[in-house]
Amino acid sequence: MDVSSRAISTEHNLKITIVDLTQSLTKIVELHQTNPLATIVLGKITLANALLGLELKNNEITTSTISTNDGLIKTTIAEFQNDRVRSFISDSNFVVTGLKPEKKLDELLSQVVGKEGTLTVARSTVQGEPYVSRVSLTDGSIDRDYMEYLRISSQVNSFISTNVELDDDFKIKSAVGILIQLLPNYKEEDVDYLIKTIGNTAFINKILVKTTNYVSLIEEIATDAIVLESKELKFQCTCSREKTIVAVKLLGVDAVDDIIKKNETVEVICDFCKTKYEITPEELKD
User: Fold this and answer.
1) How far apart are CA 225 and CA 221, in angstroms?
2) Contact in structure between 91 and 71 (CB atoms under 8 Å)
3) Residue 59 — pLDDT band, cuts 50, 70, 90?
4) What is the DSSP string of 198-237?
5) H or E element: which one contains 257?
6) Cα-flanking dihedrals φ and ψ of residue 53, to 5°?
7) Phi-psi bin for 98: left (phi > 0), alpha (psi -120 to 50), beta?
8) For position 66, what pLDDT does the model report?
9) Taking 60 as the threshold, does the pLDDT of residue 184 lie above it?
10) 123 CB contacts (<8 Å, ≥6 apart)?
């Protein structure tokens, strides 16, 4: 079962969020038939977007889009709404020619994701206009790109670490992420405490993949932490036949009329879950 835990430490002025999306991402990468590096990239972006999305309430949607000109993956999208995740990658099985396997993971990710691009985060209600923030990629390592987004868009000092661990068959063994944010009234000793406690990214990643008792891990980071909520997360696409018909209408009146006259059935495949919808001329007439 995929889960999230959120907590607050008043003594050290911290907010801590942990998400485990191992099962959801296993389903998502199976649908997209990703190669190992694409699996890691898609997993990290999905985790980071979920960490941001858990801050929102009332049916609000958080969508992250990474688009680059120089990366092997041109576009990656992750969406979070009502404790449900879905994500999409434009090139799931790119050719890895030219990549050097002896390089560190962050350096490989920078080549796969690219450095010349943007991270766009949109937050909105179902009916309302989205609040959109866009930042240039820092280095394509994903974690640092999201930390830079939070620093610029929200003026919040944050630490994000996402980890996708693969087994010997390159299947997802664990997919876990953590977000630690300093509250507005933080002091320098709170920063020092955080650095001393979590050490570095490699250390926190090592801890994350070794436990599923995330409440205990939160208490290890801050002994006074009060858990605000722990709940189940899961993969679920928001596509539907009704939404697909609306999308077909966007082709325009002339194009839809032409389809009806030719008595054609329109086939639409959801990018996220690969569900195939066949829209009949009769449905378009209605």
Assistant:
1) 8
2) no
3) confident
4) H--HHHHHHHHTT-S-HHHHHHHH-TT-EEEEEEEEEE--
5) helix 253-261
6) -65, -30
7) left
8) 96
9) yes
10) 56, 60, 61, 62, 63, 130, 131, 132
Quick one: pLDDT at residue 126? 66
Q: What percent of the chain has pLDDT over 90?
A: 54
Could you give the domains of the chain?
A: 2-235 (3.55.30.10), 241-285 (3.90.1280.10)
Gap between the terminal Cα atoms of the chain? 42
| Per-residue tokens: 54 | 């858990």
Each residue's pLDDT tens digit, 108-158: 888 889 889 999 999 887 667 778 999 999 888 899 999 999 999 888 788
pLDDT for the residue 57: 76
Q: What is the mean pLDDT of residues 95-118?
A: 77
- Out of 15-29, 32-46, 237-251, least confident range: 237-251
The residue assigned the tokens 């890691």 is: 40
Contacts of 84 (CB under 8 A, 6+ apart): 233, 234, 235, 236, 238
Q: Is 217 exposed, middle or buried (0-12, 13-18, 19+ CB in 10 A)?
A: buried
Q: Are 20 and 2 in contact (CB under 8 A)?
A: yes
Q: How would you label 239-272 residue by residue, b for 16+ Cβ within 10 Å and e otherwise? A: beeeebbeebeeeeeeebeebeeeeeebebebbb
Q: Is 210 exposed, middle or buried (0-12, 13-18, 19+ CB in 10 A)?
A: exposed
Phi, psi of 54 (to 5 degrees): -65, -15
